[in-house]
Design goal:
Elements: H1 2-16, E1 29-36, E2 63-67, H2 68-71, E3 80-85, E4 96-104, E5 124-128, H3 129-132, E6 143-150, E7 159-165, E8 168-174, E9 184-189, E10 194-201, E11 204-207, E12 216-221, E13 228-235, E14 244-246
Parallel strand pairs: 1-5, 2-4
Antiparallel strand pairs: 1-6, 2-5, 3-4, 3-6, 7-8, 7-14, 8-11, 9-10, 9-12, 10-11, 12-13
Length: 252
């Protein structure tokens, strides 16, 4: 048992050896914010990033949908933002921190300054109602805000949710710390070399390969910091689609 514990400690050490990059907050910038749904935030469940039940998967109600200018074809999924209301008598003091979990699509039937709030090139946050209510009186509907990217503080390691079939593995990556985002992924079966995965949509990556009956490891590169970490033996050889597997490494 002692040798087994030592083996896993060594794996954790080498996996984190190239994890020396810490994500730092960005500068503040101007945008606008609205909200969608009600106080329960149930309308925010699911979303374009593919995180499923945000309550069960650790994101809670502190979430926002991003305008396409920010969403960046899904590469912004998982990023964390501090948002504070400004220039309005309906503002509360302080700020709130949200995770990007959805897209706010354009509405070209409305003027960009009157209902088409998420039309490009506008920078806009459509927040959950509980998150919006932390920065402004909700009846105002829309407020100017200042925002900045901040490190995502996550408890535990990366989480990999599996979908697909015996010939196609689709993986949603959740609970990403540091920059919060993913640029590239690889998967390695216990009987294969590293296989490059392609970006599907949101926070999902796919590999067209036969990986059943093999334990799986993943290598992940952050979109923002370009840092790469490796999570060894995340899923056992009898892994199944529909399940989520947790690693013991994360970005910082």
């Amino acid at each position: 048992m002692a040798s087994l514990v030592h083996f896993w400690c060594l794996i954790g050490f080498f996996a984190m050896a190239d994890a020396a990059i810490y994500y730092r907050p960005s500068q503040w910038a101007m945008a606008h914010a609205t909200f969608y749904g009600d106080e329960s935030a149930r309308e925010t469940l699911g979303g374009a990033c593919g995180y499923g039940n945000l309550f069960n998967n650790g994101y809670g109600t502190d979430t926002a949908a991003l305008s396409t200018t920010l969403f960046n074809d899904g590469y912004a999924c998982g990023q964390c933002y501090q948002i504070k209301c400004v220039q309005s008598t309906r503002c509360y003091g302080g700020f709130t921190t949200v995770t990007a979990t959805n897209i706010c699509p354009p509405n070209w039937s409305e003027d960009s300054n009157n209902g088409g709030w998420c039309n490009p090139p506008r920078v806009h946050f459509d927040m959950s109602k509980p998150a919006f209510m932390r920065i402004a009186q909700w009846k105002v509907g829309i407020v100017p805000v200042m925002y900045r990217r901040v490190p995502c503080i996550r408890s535990g390691g990366l989480q990999f949710s599996f979908q697909g079939n015996g010939y196609w593995l689709l993986v949603y990556v959740m609970n990403v710390g540091g920059g919060g985002d993913i640029a590239q992924m690889w998967v390695k079966g216990s009987q294969t070399d590293w296989i490059s995965m392609s970006h599907n949509w949101g926070a999902s990556y796919q590999a067209f390969a036969t990986l059943g009956g093999q334990s799986l490891s993943f290598r992940v590169t952050s979109y923002t910091t370009k840092q790469t970490i490796t999570a060894y033996n995340v899923a056992p050889a009898n892994w199944r689609v529909g399940l989520t597997y947790k690693a013991n490494v994360n970005f910082r």
